[in-house]
Design brief:
With 678 residues, the protein is α/β, with parallel strands linked by helices. It contains 18 helices and 26 strands. Strands 3-2-1-7-23 form a 5-stranded parallel sheet, covered by helices on one side. The chain has a 5-stranded parallel sheet with strand order 9-21-10-11-18. It has a 3-stranded antiparallel sheet with strand order 4-5-6, with no helix packed on it.
Length: 678
């Protein structure tokens, strides 16, 4: 019930019942108090929860992110659950989340949002937004819901993106988007053309082989970076590694996100150092730097790395893609190499690859874009490909047709990719994609960030971010982020980033060790701060500690030392401009007690300038997409005021919240010199 007295109350509409919407609803409800109540209602067009995982899944589909990283901070799978789970298992997990936290009474299922419009301010008007929706369980009757805030959590995967291909009408057979693909039998005895090279494309190409399709061809424009979701199956000196370590848990917090020199964070220097090391390790293990046992579809050298791409963790089809091109490992005499599964290694089938279609001729033959630089195009250019089943694995696009034109969209959410400075009462949760990681825990972190803001516990940050992947100007997807950098940035904003000494004294050495050597698990950011959870230390000591122990001594030394080299390399090259006074910043304060907002002096050179420029462009480009959009506030912490000052909150305001910091601006001459390649 909405409070009718003068107590500052909030009434919030959450749109979408996927993971992002559910965790946002739960986070908001837990922040509600009698003194400052929060009424939250979730609207979902479908009859059940789960979103993409429920309604756009297909046979044999599994999550490519691990259970350890994907699950929410305080609702975990049993310890004996496999690292990677099926989509039906994940939907059941979400259903148990709803039940455990009593979210059912706040769900309006079968209710499709028709429009969202602003309410005109007046003396008697309490609310800011009006949501109009239709309820299929009430004869599609249109109803309204007025509220103070809105969280849009419909996600990135709703409306299919289908590129236009001239002559597509000449195909004699079935043409569908991957969102309509459901089972292997759809591919049996077909000549299948898979458009795209993402994880879904890899899954479907593999399923086509197993369905005994007549032929399978995968076409794509640029390429991909393949890496199995679990690290295993390679041989070193004749000994096969069978550890099965999830790769999304191998990035360490220490010197990677938790304890980083500011110049390194600004330049992404650590990303490029890790790429340098990993490429050489890949060649040593599998004989190729293009990816883990990847012999076709290599990305251009200037785009091959963690700073640029989304890792493709669906690798089951790689033995079939590699078959026409795989060469003997140069170090095979040492017993090094990659071991394909026996069933795949013994098969004589293959998947052809080629460039994207330019058009389809009158006979139904696919004419591929000429790419003489690609070995797969040279191999296939004279081979007639006439598919009778085309599957677009070309992703999705984001549209917000229900939003009044006066509202910002996700592309305008320049503040941490969550809110626009023009209207932070409207949040976009789950509209970023990590290069390596998972969206659900990011959505939970975003929900905590936004809740902290609307509860008055933090001001909107004004410092430039350093977590965006470096996208070309021509790229369709420009919302890529580095998972660990993004998670730690949000945690610093709302005061959930723990200090090393704080962890040691409050939770002991084991929690400290796991935090330092673990990945950016969302549970870490509930050890301290306004969303501190009693369950978090126990989860860290058990489930998350197990991910560290499975690496073994050598594995932890490798990943720990690799992270440390980021720092040493930066110091050696003096990229910070402070060779005589290295300033170590640590989350919401430095280990030595210095202010985390201290200026690092003159701008870092070279790559640092390039990345700072791209960060600045990423903040300003979105806000310029609408002529009427207001400019962001000036770079002062006080410029962005919290939404209200609660008398009492279920959240505790952390001490020592970080000051907003600014990076020295590049001069016009520097900006011209540092423009990135198209």
């Amino acid at each position: 019930m909405v409070s009718t007295d003068k107590t500052p109350a909030m009434r919030i509409a959450v749109i979408g019942a996927g993971p992002g919407g559910l965790t946002t609803l739960k986070t908001l409800l837990e922040a509600s108090t009698p003194e400052r109540p929060i009424e939250a209602v979730l609207f979902e067009a479908e009859d059940d929860i789960g979103g993409t995982f429920h309604y756009r899944g297909y046979e044999n589909a599994e999550l490519v992110s691990s259970k350890q990283l994907t699950t929410f901070s305080d609702h975990r799978f049993p310890l004996d659950t496999p690292d990677h789970i099926s989509l039906p298992q994940y939907v059941k997990y979400l259903q148990s989340y709803v039940k455990r936290f009593a979210l059912e009474s706040h769900l309006k299922l079968g209710c499709r949002v028709a429009s969202i419009e602003p309410l005109v301010k007046s003396s008697g008007q309490q609310w800011k937004h009006r949501v109009k929706y239709t309820d299929k369980h009430d004869n599609n009757k249109e109803q309204t819901f007025e509220c103070s805030h809105i969280a849009i959590c419909t996600g990135l995967h709703v409306e299919p993106n289908i590129p236009s291909i001239p002559g597509i009408e000449n195909i004699k057979g079935e043409i569908l988007h991957s969102s309509s693909y459901k089972q292997r039998s759809q591919l049996t005895a077909r000549d299948v053309l898979v458009m795209g090279c993402g994880e879904t494309a890899m899954d479907i190409a593999y399923e086509a082989i197993k369905a005994d399709a007549k032929s399978v061809t995968m076409c794509f424009r640029t390429g991909f970076l393949s890496f199995p979701k679990a690290l295993s199956r390679f041989k070193v000196l004749g000994k096969q590694f069978k550890g099965g370590l999830p790769i999304d848990g191998l990035i360490t917090n220490l010197f990677e996100t938790a304890y980083v020199h500011r110049a390194i964070a600004a330049s992404r220097f650590r990303w490029f150092v890790s790429d340098f090391v990993i490429k050489r390790v890949l060649w040593f293990l599998t004989g190729t730097q293009a990816g883990m046992n990847q012999h076709v579809g290599a990305l251009p050298h200037d785009r091959l790395g963690r700073a640029f791409v989304f890792l493709n963790k669906s690798s089951k089809a790689m033995p079939y893609l590699n078959r026409p091109y795989q060469e003997k490992h140069p170090l095979a005499f040492l017993g090094n190499g990659y071991v394909d599964p026996i069933e795949d290694a013994s098969s004589s089938r293959w998947v052809d690859t080629c460039s994207f279609p330019s058009h389809i001729d009158a006979t139904g033959r696919v004419i591929f874009e000429p790419r003489p630089d690609r070995k797969d195009w040279r191999r296939l250019k004279d081979t007639p490909i006439r598919p009778n089943c085309i599957i677009y694995c070309t992703g999705y696009k984001q549209t917000f047709s229900y939003l009044d034109p006066s509202y910002p969209t996700a592309a305008d959410a320049s503040i941490r990719n969550i809110v626009s400075p023009t209207d932070p009462s409207l949040a976009f949760i789950g509209f970023v994609r990590p290069g390596v990681g998972a969206i659900p825990p990011i959505a939970e972190q975003q929900a905590m960030w936004w809740t902290a803001y609307i509860e008055g516990l933090m001001a909107l940050p004004t410092d430039p971010p350093h977590y965006h992947l470096l996208a070309k100007e021509s790229s369709r997807i420009k919302y890529g982020v580095d998972h660990s950098a993004y998670m730690s940035t949000l945690a610093r904003d709302f005061g959930g980033a723990p200090g090393l000494l704080e962890l040691w004294t409050a939770h002991g050495l084991k929690v400290l060790f796991v935090y330092c050597f673990g990945a950016s698990f969302v549970t870490f950011y509930r050890l301290v701060g306004p969303f501190k959870s009693k369950e978090a230390p126990g989860i860290v000591r058990t489930e998350l500690a197990e991910t560290i122990l499975r690496r073994g001594v050598l594995g932890n030394l490798f990943f720990g030392v690799s992270a440390f080299t980021f720092t040493l390399a930066c110091i050696a090259n003096k990229t910070s401009g402070h060779s005589d006074d290295v300033l170590w910043t640590y989350q919401h304060g430095s280990l030595g007690g210095r202010d985390a907002g201290l200026d690092t002096g003159r701008e870092a050179r070279g790559l640092d300038q390039k990345c700072r420029l791209e960060d600045t462009q990423s903040q300003t480009t979105n806000t310029s997409s609408k002529p009427s959009a207001a400019k962001p506030p000036a770079a002062k912490p006080s410029a962005a005021k919290p939404s209200g000052s609660p008398k009492s909150s279920a959240l505790s305001k952390p001490s020592g919240l970080p000051k907003s910091s600014s990076v020295p601006a590049l001069s016009p001459s520097q900006s011209t010199a540092c423009k990135t390649k198209a």
